[in-house]
Here is the input.
Amino acid sequence: MQERDIDRIIEMAWEDRTPFSAIEAQFGLSEQEVIKVMRKHMKASSFRMWRQRVQGRKTKHLALRSKEIDRHKCSRQRAISNNKISKR
Here is the structure.
C-alpha cells in the first residue's frame, strides 16, 4: 500500500461522518483492517484518542446511523469519484 493511500485511509477514518463502509468501498479494507492501519501508522496516544472517540459512534457505522444523514463526506473533503481520489 502506498504512503498516499495510508494517509487517505487515516484521514477518512479520522473524519466523524465517514463510515467504515466508505473506506471499504474505496480501499477494500474492513473496519478491523482500518484499525490495524491506524494502530501501525499513528502514535499510540493518537490511536487511543481516536479509538475512544470512534467506538460506538453512530456516524461511523451505517447500521447505527440516522436515516437523515445521507452523505459521508466532510465539507472539506475533496470529491471522490469512481472510488478513487480525484485531484490529489
About this structure: The radius of gyration is 13 Å. The chain has one domain: 3-66. The mean pLDDT is 76.
